[in-house]
Amino acid sequence: MLYHIFYPLATDIKLFNIFKYLTFRSIYAMITALVVCFILGPWVIRKLESLQARQVIRTDGPESHLQKQGTPTMGGVIILAAIVVPTLLWADLTNQYIWITLFITIGYGVIGFVDDYKKVVKKDTKGLSARQKMFWQVLLAGSVATYLFLRPGFSEQLFFPLFKNFHPDLWIWFIPFATIVIVGASNAVNLTDGLDGLAIGPVTINAATYMLFSYIAGHAALSAYLQIPRVVGAGELAVLCGAMVGAGLGFLWYNSYPAEVFMGDVGSLSLGGTLGTIAVLTKQELLLVIVGGVFVVEALSVIFQVGSYKYRGKRIFRMAPIHHHFELKGVAEPKIIVRFWIITIILALVAISTLKMR
Questions:
Q1: Which of 3, 162, 175, 226 could form a disulfide with 145 if both were Cys (CB 3.0 to 4.6 A apart)?
Q2: pLDDT, tens digit (0-9, with 9 covering 90-100), for 182-194
C-alpha cells in the first residue's frame, strides 16, 4: 500500500525513491511487524485468557511441563497479523508471488485456528481430525502447485544446492512435489512447537535466510553471478520474509521461556506452510532440508518412533518428537531450546555457503 502511494511521487520528490528498494521495504516490514506484535500482544493474551483458551498439557510427558497447564494458546494470531499487515503495507501488491504466499499463510492459519478453537475454547478434545487437517492442507498446497505448473514461465525444474548443471525437469510431478514440500514444512514446524520458543526461533532464522535467497533470486545480476535460478518477481518475497523475521522476534518477546503464550496450530501450521511456499517459489526447495534441518529431524524422529513401535514393538526414543527425548534424559528445557537455535544458525550459514559452492 505504502509502495503504491509514495513510489509514484518519486518523480517529483526524490526522497520517495527509497520505496523502490527492496532492502528498505524489507527492513521496515520487519520493524512494522515488531510494532504490531508489541501493540497486539498484550491485548491478544488478555483476550485468550478471557476466552479460557488455555493449553492442555499431556500427563504422559515430562513432569516439568505440568506447570505450563493453563498458559494461553492460539497466540499465532499475533504472528499472522504481524506478517499480513506489514506485507500489505510495504510490498508491491501487484506481485503474484506475494498473494500466493499470503494465500497459504492465511489458509493454513485458518486450518490451525479452527483446530485450536475447537480444542481449547469449545473443549472438543478431538478438534479437527488428522485426516481433515491433511485434506485441507493438501487442497490448498495442491492448488498453489497446480497454479504454478500452469503459469507460463514458471520452471518445473529441480535445482540442487551443490550442482550448477543438474536440473531435472519434474514436469507434471512438480505438482505433488511442491505439495509435499509445503505440507511437509507445515507439519514439521507443528511437531517442533513443543517447548517455549523452540519453533519460533528456527522459523525466524529460516525466514532471514530465505529473505536473502529471495532477494538474490529476483536480482538478474546476482542470480547470474551466483548461479542460482532467476525467478522474475521473487525478490518481492524478501519483504514478506522481513515481516516474518519481525513477527518471529516480536512473538518471541512473549513466547521465550517461561512462555506467556503459545502459538498453537494457528501459528505453527501457517509458519511452516509459508516457509515451504517461499522455498517452492524461489526454486530453493532442497535448501529447506538444510536450513530447516531441525524441523526435518523433529519430523523424522516421530516417523521413526511410530514405525519402530508399530513393526518392532520397541521405541527408539524415550519420547517423540526428539526434544522431549532430551528432556526425559535430564537436559534442561532452556538449554535444549538455545542449542536447537545454535544448530539452526549453523545450518543457515551452511545453506548460505552453498551460494559459492556451485
A1: 175
A2: 999 999 999 999 9
